[in-house]
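Quick note —
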Amino acid sequence: MATSQNDRCLLNHNDIFTRSEKAKIVIDIINGLKKFPGKNNNTIDLYNSQYSYYDDFKKITSAWINNELSEYKGIIYFAELDKNFEYLFPKMKNEAPLFVLRCKTFIKSSI
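Predicted structure written out below.
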């Protein structure tokens, strides 16, 4: 979601993520995906173009990095694991970026 020109005037640029800060955040996420903790103290490389989430991840992070006042929030389905990545790529530094793999949770009915 982009911000209008009027909103830009109201923002303190020290409170907005710069392009280089965004790139560093995305690189840190990619490094985490490449060394994702597996069972028995092993690591798994989840950053692979063959995985279903990969193209969406690249598209979203590229747009976030290249658009100064952008913010992206949502879920990307990771079909191979039947799990979701939840993400938040904020424009303002007062919100922490988020990219986490969530377990699917089911609510047990009391009926």
